[in-house]
């Protein structure tokens, strides 16, 4: 087992990628490690030509992944859009790993990201000693992806200021990055493309300009519609994360996943699962990703403080933390949900008791 906390997708799933590549006889776009068909198999699961089992990385509609892959096979950039927790970053990483064999060329966009972090910056010691030169220039992941013909990932694109976002317009439309200080430019090598992720649900996002939007093909990743599908997704990811953290997985993991997701889905959708009672929704998204985080936190508590027993007692604090983002409004919503819904459910009596005590 690696001593690194988390390996990039191309290392974690190196055996699967190698098996797919070895048996991949379909045409490949220039610069691609796998054919589009093999990329879809890598994302959605299946079998390689030699019989190697390919685990599904994304559980959802096949046509969305096919559209995303088809976009990357053109000169259009891809924007994965959706509410927080819809696996946008996860899909982005695995697409880059399958297409380019390298998912590490990534720019994490924040309110503090400036143009130098997107285009290039300078080694000021070299700059002062020798003046503007190629040796003094410090390339960004976008710069390196253009030079090497690989995929650059821009995570949470709408977190950047609008003026910085528009730095990408020339890159996406002209496939070149001007370097006026050297009176030259970097021209993208075949195989280069951009995958961006964004959501418009959180506070602090910056709307994309119309000019920038036109340069992306947009694929919207939805939250799972089906309860069983979401349970399968959360259970699978929790199992993988537990293994990477050396946390034992109790036998009742799937049962607790189902109960936590029932609470999350009812509050998220604003009604009980049977549709008979209308509820108020809290300010948070209560996404699939948050359910995974809750369960991993519960497994850690069970392993270190509860003798391996995964129960409502250990899960309730993280469940409450996921629900209550606004200490006044969300607290009142949770209290109302406990009294009108959970109080009458025998199979949720332990959650009702623990959450009531915490609230």
Secondary structure blueprint with pairings:
Blueprint: H1 9-12, H2 14-22, H3 36-44, E1 46-47, E2 53-54, H4 62-72, E3 77-81, H5 88-100, E4 106-108, H6 115-118, E5 120-122, H7 124-130, E6 137-139, H8 141-148, E7 151-155, H9 162-165, H10 168-174, E8 176-179, E9 184-187, E10 193-198, H11 210-213, E11 216-220, H12 227-244, H13 253-269, H14 288-305, H15 312-323, H16 329-340, H17 349-358
- General form: globular
User: Domains counted in the coordinates: how many?
Assistant: 2
Q: What percent of residues are in strands?
A: 5-15%
Largest sheet: 5 strands, parallel
What is the strand arrangement across the widest sheet?
4-7-10-3-11
Structure description:
With 359 residues, the protein is α/β, with parallel strands linked by helices. It has 2 domains: 9-220, P-loop containing nucleotide triphosphate hydrolases (Rossmann fold, 3-Layer(aba) Sandwich), CATH 3.40.50.300; 227-358. Helices cover 47% and strands 12% of the residues. It contains 17 helices and 11 strands. The protein has helices spanning 9-12, 14-22, 36-44, 62-72, 88-100, 115-118, 124-130, 141-148, 162-165, 168-174, 210-213, 227-244, 253-269, 288-305, 312-323, 329-340, 349-358, and strands at residues 46-47, 53-54, 77-81, 106-108, 120-122, 137-139, 151-155, 176-179, 184-187, 193-198, 216-220. A 5-stranded parallel beta sheet has the order 4-7-10-3-11. A two-stranded antiparallel ribbon has the order 1-2. The chain has a two-stranded antiparallel sheet with strand order 5-6. The radius of gyration is 23 Å and the shape is globular.
